[in-house]
Design brief:
With 973 residues, this protein is of the alpha/beta class. The protein contains 33 helices and 30 strands. It starts with 9 loop residues before the first strand and ends in a 10-residue tail after the last strand.
Length: 973
């Protein structure tokens, strides 16, 4: 006869536990994995597959463990939860352990019926994690069915990897290069945005009118926009591309029921109108509301979060307004960037080449000025391209001198500016970094022979003998490598990066691995190249890594696990680009407390010195004074660099008047520099005022602390995971070695652990490390490098250890070492009367109404219950005292026969404690109900429909008896 399962009940099939869904029939069960998503729903025929109630067999009185058995079993159970009790439905099932401060945007989002957020935390704080947490929670609750991430094509694959590996969200890439393949699988008339519920879309691909309309019609109900500041039209001077992006977002935001998360570290970019346009996308009222008023600030606080590192480095402390530091969390950002400017001089031959090139460019600009405005702009851009590439490297100069100027085909002066500016300037408003690291052209009509001669001379200067900039780089890199650093060398142009990497391979020794990553590689190939570099360097402490890269890696790519120093080989003409470069390594997860930065500049090339003084140094000073970066005003910045170029060209035209002219020309440079400084200071003041006025106050630290405590009570604390992994691995005969530096880190060599655990560890820790005996590093930080394990419950290595310990404990017939057992009798001075500790698993059925309909899920919790005396007349202890029993030390050995007899008697009396367990389960259900109401208090209709019930009876997983030791006269101590 077929057993009938009611919706919401738990069954075991196919080696895992499932929740029975309402669509089930007696002969066909529709099941969702416990902790899984709707994508994992399966149908099972009980007549053909074994299906049984999900419950544990009772503990065996003969299967006894030592004093650590209870703690190991409890921890292994909690670590394995994928649908934990608590106010958040997704946290137990994700593969990342969020910092406490990263829960703030999530709490803000859950107080909105339609989530609209502008997340603007500083670089390196974790905006991707914050957006991912919100997305996963909305999907888990059923508040959203689909997700679209709009981002640069260069970052699409990184977003895909982050969502898949950390949040369990499988998203398809919708890029210009993938659309044809995706569309081949569509039904007639079907949109690919209907076919694929979760997508990562290239903003530049989808913004065109050709593709935009279909996307808007079929857009998912949850959208994340990365680098959102590039999608706003601040004024009439912004590019057509920005305007197209803004129109796309405006259309998306028109649907009042669509969840929208805008992510950017620079919401202002120095322009109030751009900031207001961003806010208008979040909520139309915010585009015009007076933010000086209390009403305006309260309205903004519901949707806007912006914090710098100093705000979150120490969080949930007494300084945050809490009563104590029991929940304090320190986030290990590097404490300092040690920046140093290093100069070099041109060799005589290079000096002569630069002078001749400047003379040529000056003549062309002067002659073109007499021909017309179009010709003048083409010559101007060609001159800038020539000067920048010459200052960069001989190879970049040679290629520029041999390549036709992009502006040469322009039909007007305006078109010349549009074509050439992105290639020769480093504007903060550049549409994208893709393609901008190619060496610009300088050749124009009628100049071939002279440029060819200059190009030949440039090629002859390659190498550190004539290129003293390269020689200086080699010298400074050797010093960094000697100090144990792994640097990234950033170059402006592809030919320069290739040239530098080529020569560094010959100069830095056999122990140093050098690789170049440029825009010639696809985004995925870039990440692969970086991983290859890390693999080739290996684990040899003497090995060093040097990455030479263009600015194709200066945004979005996280490199802190492999590198810890930055060398600016070429000065960017926008200091924000320097900040972006340094932000690749100076971020959460960087092991170095001090990140080193070296900026190379030429003291006699006429350009670098002024750029460093007026732009780079000023930017650093603002960052040091305010603790944040403030974008340089583009127009004023361009005015300064234009004045420097004008000075160089005009000095070449009138060398006999250099003294008089130099004073006048430099006066122009200084005047424009002063104007820039004034505008920049004003922007900095506005930014400071804005951050003070709009500081995150919607969520008080006390509210965060309450939810953090609830999460840790359910899923475990970091110290519990650390203790568990150490003890479990040691008990399983792994060789555990402490780091000895006070960090709490350790390594474990696991070649001697049971075969089942080795098999489980191989896919997540690496088969080579498991079988060869190479120690696996375990780190106390959640941000770890490839090949390392984090001591957090969501790490796959930790999960593999926990699953092995739990499975071995539940199988009394398992062969090999079994650190955790379901029963134990311990003689200890921690008690004065016989005390019984129960490890109980509770399950709760939750009914969660949402805009998408009612969702029924099951949550789990593991609790410790302890009583003194007998089960028939128990004195129940507070939970804190029950928890203390896990650390009780055995005072003496206990006779095996006595242990088994004691345990058999205790197990036989447990029916008497069932009423208390049932009552306690109902109390936990009420607490869980209240926690859901608390975090969703803005959604009245959802709160009213919420139901939580405890499944009875609860499962008793472990029973442990603690007895006072027997004194010499035979009495209990």
């Amino acid at each position: 006869m077929t057993h009938t399962y009611t919706p919401g009940s738990l069954v075991t099939a196919r080696g895992r536990e499932w929740v029975v869904l309402p669509d089930s029939e007696p002969d066909l069960l529709v099941l969702r994995p416990l902790g899984g998503s709707d994508d994992d729903i399966s149908a099972v025929f009980p007549a053909f597959e074994q299906v049984r109630d999900a419950q544990f067999a009772p503990p065996s009185p003969a299967d006894l463990g030592d004093q650590r058995a209870a703690g190991l079993l409890r921890s292994s159970l909690r670590i394995g939860f994928r649908s934990g009790a608590g106010p958040f439905r997704s946290l137990a099932g994700i593969a990342v352990e969020p910092r406490a401060y990263q829960l703030v945007p999530l709490l803000m989002a859950l107080r909105q019926q339609t989530v609209r957020m502008l997340i603007s935390d500083d670089v390196g704080i974790g905006k991707t994690i914050e957006a991912g947490l919100i997305a996963k929670e909305l999907l888990a609750q059923g508040e959203a069915k689909g997700l679209a991430v709009l981002c640069s094509p260069a970052l699409a694959e990184q977003w895909q990897k982050e969502l898949r590996t950390k949040f369990g969200i499988d998203a398809e890439l919708v890029l210009a290069s993938t659309v044809s393949r995706l569309e081949r699988g569509l039904d007639l008339g079907q949109s690919l945005f209907d076919r694929y519920p979760h997508v990562i879309v290239s903003t530049d691909y989808i913004k065109s009118t050709r593709h935009r309309d279909d996307f808007v019609r079929h857009c998912p109900d949850l959208v994340i926009v990365d680098e959102a500041h590039t999608c706003v039209a601040a004024d009439d001077t912004v590019s057509t591309q920005n305007q197209l992006r803004y129109e796309l977002l405006r259309r998306i935001a028109e649907d009042p029921d669509r969840h929208l998360l805008l992510v950017t570290a620079t919401p202002h970019s120095g322009k109030e109108s751009g900031f207001r346009n961003l806010l208008g996308l979040v909520r139309p009222e915010l585009a015009d509301v007076d933010l000086e008023t209390d009403r305006g600030r309260r309205l903004l606080a519901q949707h806007f979060v912006q914090r710098k590192r100093g705000d979150v480095r120490q969080y949930l402390t007494k300084e945050s307004g809490l009563a104590d530091d029991s929940l304090a969390e320190k986030t290990a950002f590097p404490s300092d960037r040690k920046s140093k400017d290093e100069q070099y001089k041109l060799s005589p031959a290079y000096r002569a080449l630069l002078d001749d090139a400047i003379a040529y460019a000056s003549e062309r600009v002067q002659a073109a000025g007499q021909q017309g405005r179009r010709e003048a702009r083409i010559a101007w851009w060609s001159a800038i391209a020539l000067l920048r590439s010459l200052v960069s490297s001989p190879r970049a100069a040679s290629q520029t001198l041999s390549t036709r100027s992009a502006a040469a085909v322009a039909a007007s002066a305006e078109e010349a500016d549009r074509l050439a500016a992105p290639l020769t300037r480093d504007s903060a408003d550049s549409d994208a970094l893709e393609g901008l690291d190619a060496a610009p052209g300088a050749e124009t009509d009628g100049a071939g022979a002279r440029l060819a001669d200059l190009a030949e001379r440039a090629s002859a200067l390659e190498g550190p003998e004539d290129d003293l900039k390269l020689a200086a780089l080699v010298r400074h890199l050797k010093a960094l490598l000697k100090d144990g650093y792994h640097p990234i060398v950033f170059c402006r142009y592809i030919p320069t990066a290739e040239y530098v990497a080529e020569h560094l391979e010959k100069k830095l020794g056999s122990k140093t691995v050098v690789k170049a990553v440029t825009g010639t590689l696809s985004p995925q190939q870039r990440l692969t190249r970086i991983e290859e570099l890390a693999t080739l360097a290996g684990d040899d402490p003497a090995a060093r890594r040097v990455l030479v890269a263009t600015d194709c890696l200066s945004e979005g790519v996280n490199l802190q696990h492999h590198f810890d120093a930055v060398v600016h080989y070429d000065l960017a003409w926008n200091p924000t680009r320097h900040d972006q470069r340094e932000g690749r390594v100076d971020r959460y997860g960087q092991k170095r407390d001090e990140v080193r930065v070296i900026t190379l500049y030429g003291i006699d090339n006429g350009i670098d010195g002024k750029v460093l003084e007026v732009l780079i140094a000023k930017h650093r000073q603002i960052r040091k004074d305010l603790g944040i970066s403030v974008s340089v005003p583009d127009e004023a910045s361009s005015g300064v660099t234009d004045a420097i170029v004008e000075w160089l060209l005009m000095r070449s035209q009138q060398p006999q008047q250099e003294g008089l002219f130099g004073v006048e020309a430099l006066k122009t440079v200084d005047e424009r520099a002063a104007a820039l400084e004034s505008e920049w200071n004003s922007a900095a003041e506005r930014e400071t005022t804005s951050r003070s006025r709009f500081a995150q106050r919607a969520i008080h630290p006390e509210e965060v602390a309450r939810e953090v405590a609830a999460i840790r009570d359910t899923l475990g604390r970091a110290d519990e995971v650390s203790v568990f992994v150490r003890h479990a691995l040691a008990a399983l005969e792994a060789h555990v070695v402490e780091a000895g530096d006070g960090s709490g880190d350790f390594t474990a060599e696991v070649s001697g652990v049971p075969a089942g655990l080795r098999d489980a560890l191989a896919p997540v820790a690496g088969a080579e490390a498991v079988e060869s005996g190479r120690p696996i590093p375990f780190r106390t930080t959640a941000a770890v490098a490839r090949g390392e394990a984090a001591l957090v419950r969501t790490d796959p290595v930790v999960g593999a250890v926990a699953a092995h310990v739990l499975n071995a404990a539940l199988d009394a017939e398992a062969v090999g070492r079994r650190p955790a057992r379901r029963c134990g009798v311990v003689s200890t001075e921690a008690v004065t009367v016989p005390t019984t500790l129960l490890l109980v698993r509770y399950r709760f059925h939750l009914t969660l109404p949402s805009r998408q309909g009612t969702r029924r899920i099951v949550a789990e919790d593991a609790r410790l219950l302890a009583y003194q005396g007998s089960a028939r007349n128990p004195v129940w202890l507070p939970e804190e005292q029950a928890l203390d029993l896990l650390t009780a030390e055995a005072a003496e050995n206990t006779d095996d026969y006595f242990q088994e007899r004691t345990m058999r008697r205790t197990l036989g009396q447990l029916d008497a404690v069932q009423p208390h367990m049932t009552s306690y389960g109902d109390e936990l259900a009420a607490e869980l109900h209240e926690s859901h109401r608390r975090v969703r208090r803005a959604s009245d209709e959802i709160v009213q429909g919420l139901k939580v019930t405890a499944q009875q009876p609860a499962d008793i997983l472990g029973v442990y008896v603690y007895l006072p030791p027997i004194t010499a006269d035979g009495e209990a101590a």
